[in-house]
Amino acid sequence: MAGKKSSKQANSIKVGIIGFGTVGSGTVEVLQKNRDIIRDRVGWEITVKKIADLDISSDRGISIDPDLLTTEAMEVIADPEIQIVVELIGGIDKAKEYILRAMEKGKHVVTANKALLAEHGKEIYEAAEKNEVSLAFEASVGGGIPVVRSLREGLSANRIHSIMGILNGTSNYILTRMTQKGLPYTKAVEEAIEHGYAEDPPTLDVDGTDAAHKLAILISIVFGVPVTFKDIYREGIDRLTPEDIQFAGELGYCLKLLAIARDLGDAVDARVHPAMVPLNHIMANVNGVYNAIYMEGDFVGPNLYYGLGAGRKPTGSAVVSDLIYLARQIRQGIKQVIPPLAHVHPRRDKVLVQPVQELMTPYYFRFSALDRPGVLSKISGILGENGISISSVIQKGRDLNGSVPLVMLTHEAKESNVINALSQMNGLEILTDKTMMIRVEAS
Fold this sequence. Notes:
Elements: E1 12-18, H1 22-33, H2 35-42, E2 45-52, E3 69-70, H3 73-78, E4 84-87, H4 93-104, E5 108-111, H5 114-130, E6 135-136, H6 147-154, E7 160-166, H7 169-181, H8 185-194, H9 203-206, H10 209-223, E8 233-234, H11 242-250, E9 253-263, E10 268-278, E11 290-297, E12 301-308, H12 312-331, E13 360-361, E14 363-370, H13 375-385, E15 390-395, E16 403-410, E17 413-414, H14 415-425, E18 436-440
Parallel strand pairs: 1-2, 1-4, 2-3, 4-5, 5-6, 8-10, 10-18
Antiparallel strand pairs: 7-9, 7-11, 9-10, 11-12, 13-17, 14-16, 14-18, 15-16
Helix pairs in contact: 1-12, 4-5, 5-10, 7-8, 13-14
């Protein structure tokens, strides 16, 4: 079990790393370059004893003893001297197997695996408690931003009323380039890939899945029980156009991919989608590959966390912060400080997510309409029949193909009514393309 150490291990915490890619190499780099300051803060050395990866020949840009490298992950887990196992391979099946096996061996675990925790967190959290080991996952949300520990510890005296986050740097970079340079979506994606900010293709980033994984983890910490990931509504940015960004600006807004959670009492409003944000809102100024998480607690009020949300160095920094946290605990002979979700007695057994159809918010519509008399009255009539009132309208001049963009901003409306109204308009011959609908986040 990972507890007090023998004299042979007395002044060193032994760590094993599974996964030596971008984050794994960044973790080793932090441990090497900041060795002295880490030792001073822990009181003992943190030593990497073994590193497992399928590729042990590629140059990672750091000096590493070849004897530390292995292609067998189980060598890390089976080593009796290793007290902390760091899982950095990503994915689901193998990562879950390695984490569970490590916990069964009595080893503490550090992971950056947001997908695993969001989709299979319950099993992982229960295994940590059953085996009386600690699970640390600061790097799973926000890269180098210390938001997980802030929720688990710094804000633990508060009821968290709301979370609003820009949690995916790739999508934020794409939208920033579309906004600042007027690039079409495909060109902005190509640029993100060229600069190494996105995978090719960047599906999980741009379709909202990555941000939803992170939001699920944050909500789970807030309530102390895992949220069901599939219940979180998610929508991507791939349909957004420079024209939508331009119209948003004319209306006093910008476009961001937001992850939103609000405590409604008996349920949680949890969703990820593009949203129009007022230009004077703090989130409007979060650009490029940066992330930001804005939270409100009942006593602490608003809190903002901002920084690089991904990358070798920021994420490696977060992993090492977890190692320091666990090393201090091991040095004191403590098996487990707090449960993974930081609740000994959660307030509820299950987190119920409000269906997105129940959402009440203002909306932005962009219609592609034929340039004919009565078009505006026909559209506004259908909206009115569904209880949707118009706040403002922008109508541009004649387009080359005979269609004109008609832009509307509504007052607060119910999503189910919006869906019904747009479905009624689908068959109208006055509309030449699918209507663009974007939710407005006014608070």
